[in-house]
């Protein structure tokens, strides 16, 4: 009955979590210190390993709050691992060297004790130390799991900008519902403004990743995922489809450009002025398998993104009918679809949808 | 996977006059128990799949609309009875009564065959009513789960017939005794699986 | 008519790529050469009687090893093709389609058709000897398992020249692997190849559990079993619990493709995420299935070449068993980024980290087995020593990956690729190599050349680090797995080139191993002692190679390391344990059924792949007929008379 487990476990994780964040000052200090340590460590390591490469190591060179916190976590966990790794490696070399068999000089050679096979004290040490380290790491991981839950809105004074992401066979479509424009394989947004990515797919599953801003998330048909990121400074960041989705998935690269709010507004204006409109037929064309250059569109069909989600979404919701009774606003679709992950019965889904509403109201 | 089960029993045997043979038969019995564990996991996975998908009807018919409980209840009684008669077969064997053993096995096999007939009739009817395996995720899971059980029963039937022939040829020996014990165990196992099918698929489906 | 045939042929055979034509020619030539040689030397009968129909675990083990080394060659070629394609930016050596097919087959072959059979080979070669048994519990089933693996692997490999290879990744996630996105037959080859060999794996799992639990020599209590035997037991327990899930998952995918069902489709209520969950519920335990026996091998080798008892026996057993158990509760760490929420991710992150604890303990126990030992460094020990740092680093990067929120930055990148190659090559491949070198003299009766072996070892080791260390950094540079080419602007050039060089170093290391084997056959250094390493367990107490009945008399065991203690007693001038009288030995007869039945499975699978029921149905009927034939056959065993045992033992230089 092992196989029954996932549905139950998955269920608990799916609740829409809108939790207030609290950050103590002391913690901030510690995080800053760690970050400095991280920079020093990674830079030293890089300097030794490959001079001049450090800016290429995008994961270690984040330009957004989420990416920075993920780097903190990478550094903390690496340090904890090194606590075990280094002694083990030293011990290995020492033991192999010390106890190598030297036929000529048996008198001076190291102690040989062929029946020594147990020591409660020693074994307690090496059961104990990993347990302690894993316990620390587990606490840190759990804390960060909630802190960095991708669907959680960022705490920021600016109102987030919404970007709807669709992975297609083998290109990315980005829609800006608030601005009424769209782009293909190119992303632009203001810096220092939280971005709320809503993601889906009209093709096999892919994964949306801009390493310098933060970690990736899968894009899947029939559901709307959420990823909240922010860019702390202007720049052009590498973005890509990280999950294999067929023939030309390797060409699903895009540039994510963070600019000042003014520049972003100018870009929107320019797109509105000079680009063609995206029609439904145009979208159908775009969705056909193939690669694409960078494109921009001055307008988008009403509700296109929701239609893409629902194209596969209806049946994902179990009985489906309950969905319609509730009417369909985007928010509902969001909580419903992200809830339809897997292993849910209609009843569970129903309960969830209500819960989702309660949260939104 | 039924094949592997078939095989763990269909191993080299013979010469029951030699000592050490009792051990070999016990060994095969143990192997069959382990096979049953793997079969449990197989059905467990199928049940899990069914639980996940059973509401994904994609606007098509639901089980509640189409299941006809009288037929299903008849199937259930037939299979439960066959489990009982396979137990009687083992009791006859333990008394050394070959005729009784083969007789009860024939009754068991006939009951099994009527179970399969009823099930196929049910499937055909469902398909005519617009619920085929390709109709929706829900029906895919239904046919696969119930069909896998049916396939197990069918394999069991062929196997039971082959054991009856072997009993006719060799009589009750340590080898045929082990084979009868194993098929009976297998039959009880399928009965238990069916109780789960009946509860989870049909009862909870129409409720 | 001719046009029809042409059309059929161009669909049926894979065409259009010079690499494949080259391979076609090579395959045809090899087959002609093999057939000619067998005919010329009149070896057909020998092949059939001594090998194909054999139910002897030692011969089956050898066949497993040969098949898996051939598969290692093919998987390795795939790897080198990929590394060549990635060596420099914008390379046009392989098209994206071809690249996709190659990484798919590389993964499937290395895990399912290389690691698994090599592991089963070692089980077969060692376990009965190590526990003092004359064979496995079900010799017929054992032969059937091998042939199912063999024909499953052949069915999978045939896709290279017929119909087209699968190209949806080694785990074939739907909807990409569904008919809607992979209409070709490659996916069907994938499903049937793995399904057929998977049935064999499951039966091997059952077989060895019963063998270990029921066929040990008298006196060998569970807590006196050699550590390799323990590791095989834990691995087999994991097999029987995990493989049925794979069987179901692949069957459901097949039903989707063949009958138009909707388990994992995008439309009509399918749920692709269910596949991802199911496949990893098998897939994660699977990696522990292959690594646990490697832990056992290292335990044997550490003790033997330290001339010292294994340190912390009870801890080791407990660690093995807890790893088996925990391996079933970590599957979701393969998709932390699927949006399951913080609760789920935190749960699976912690279960994953927990596995690091028993694994770490094992490393310390190996180290302290060597502590106060008398270490010598022949090739098996070299692989053991190469393993420890490699596996520890790989394990640590695994812990980094288990930190769910950080995994969002590692997932799908080369960091992940580097990690799992480090544990699978550093742990599994090094482990099995160590095992092969260690038990080679027992199996074949001669030792392998040490000097060439050390060359191979260093090439593999250095090649490994040169190949995979840069990949960690490539991952941190944002290079994602499965991309078939990249531009100059990415800055990934230097590290990729380095990595490719490392890959080829390992390739050369493999060639050295082949040379080592050929060289050692030619200048054979016979092992007449039966105990060339100063072994500790029962397999070293009998002649090399072991006689067909293994033990002339069943040994009595009273402690761990039974053979070592016996040698100690003899060295102290005490009398050896008295042996019982010789008795006729009960043996199973050879059978052609496993081969024929598996061939029928192959035919059925091939028929289903091409949707040719005229072929699939007779295949299945053949399978059923074989089973019934075997069930009705009561003449399956015989006795080896005492005279013959005496003659065999005398020929091996043993007094009886």
TrEMBL record, chain B:
SUPFAM superfamilies: Cytochrome c oxidase subunit III-like
Domain Heme-copper oxidase subunit III family profile span(s) in chain numbering: 30-206
Physiological role: Cytochrome bo(3) ubiquinol terminal oxidase is the component of the aerobic respiratory chain of E.coli that predominates when cells are grown at high aeration. Has proton pump activity across the membrane in addition to electron transfer, pumping 2 protons/electron.
Subcellular localization(s) per the UniProt record: Cell membrane
GO terms for biological process, alphabetical: aerobic electron transport chain
Coiled coil feature spans: none
Entry keywords, A to Z: Cell membrane, Electron transport, Membrane, Oxidoreductase, Transmembrane, Transmembrane helix, Transport
Family: Belongs to the cytochrome c oxidase subunit 3 family.
PANTHER family from the UniProt entry: CYTOCHROME BO(3) UBIQUINOL OXIDASE SUBUNIT 3, CYTOCHROME C OXIDASE SUBUNIT III
Gene Ontology terms for molecular function: cytochrome bo3 ubiquinol oxidase activity; cytochrome-c oxidase activity
Lineage: Bacteria, Bacillati, Bacillota, Bacilli, Bacillales
Membrane topology (UniProt): Multi-pass membrane protein
Subunit structure: Heterooctamer of two A chains, two B chains, two C chains and two D chains.
Membrane-crossing residue ranges in chain numbering: 32-53, 73-94, 101-121, 141-165, 185-205
Entry protein name: Cytochrome bo(3) ubiquinol oxidase subunit 3
Domain of life: Bacteria
Automatic annotation (TrEMBL), chain C:
Chain segments annotated as coiled-coil in the UniProt record: none
Cytochrome oxidase subunit I profile domain sequence ranges: 42-558
CDD domains recorded: Ubiquinol_Oxidase_I (cd01662)
InterPro entries in UniProt: Cyt_c_oxase-like_su1_dom, Cyt_c_oxase-like_su1_sf, Cyt_C_Oxase_1
UniProt subcellular location: Cell membrane
Top-level taxon of origin: Bacteria
Reaction it catalyzes: 2 a quinol + O2 = 2 a quinone + 2 H2O
Pathway: Energy metabolism; oxidative phosphorylation
Principal place of residence: membrane
TM annotation in the entry: 20-41, 62-81, 101-127, 139-162, 189-210, 230-255, 275-298, 310-332, 344-368, 380-404, 416-440, 452-473, 493-515, 592-610, 616-632
Gene3D superfamilies in UniProt: 1.10.287.70, Cytochrome c oxidase-like, subunit I domain
Keywords: Cell membrane, Copper, Electron transport, Heme, Hydrogen ion transport, Ion transport, Iron, Membrane, Metal-binding, Respiratory chain, Transmembrane, Transmembrane helix, Transport
GO cellular component, one term: plasma membrane
Molecular function terms, GO-annotated: cytochrome bo3 ubiquinol oxidase activity; cytochrome-c oxidase activity; heme binding; metal ion binding
Listed PROSITE patterns: COX1
Cofactor(s) for this UniProt protein: Cu cation; ferriheme a
Membrane association type: Multi-pass membrane protein
Gene Ontology biological-process entries: aerobic respiration; electron transport coupled proton transport; respiratory electron transport chain
Family: Belongs to the heme-copper respiratory oxidase family.
PANTHER family referenced in this protein's UniProt entry, alphabetically: CYTOCHROME BO(3) UBIQUINOL OXIDASE SUBUNIT 1 (PTHR10422:SF35), CYTOCHROME C OXIDASE SUBUNIT 1 (PTHR10422)
Name of the protein in its database record: Quinol oxidase polypeptide I
